[in-house]
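Extended Data, panel c. Modelled sequence:
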Amino acid sequence: MKETPMKPVTLIKEDYIKKLIQLTNDSNLPYFVVESILKEFLETIHAVSLQQLEADRQNYEKQLAQCPQEHEPIV
């Protein structure tokens, strides 16, 4: 049985933007309200991204510590 191919990130991004535009247009909210909502959303996404970065860094460092081979230092 053939696996379904994974959709490229570029196409997922395009779909996401189209849906976001449609949602914005359908909301009938004034653009200054949409702007405020998106700013709050971006702040939340940024905080979560930083948390994920730190978790990834810690996980990678733990994996490197368990590996006896030489590896590049984390900057």
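The mean pLDDT is 93. This feature is highlighted in the accompanying rendering.
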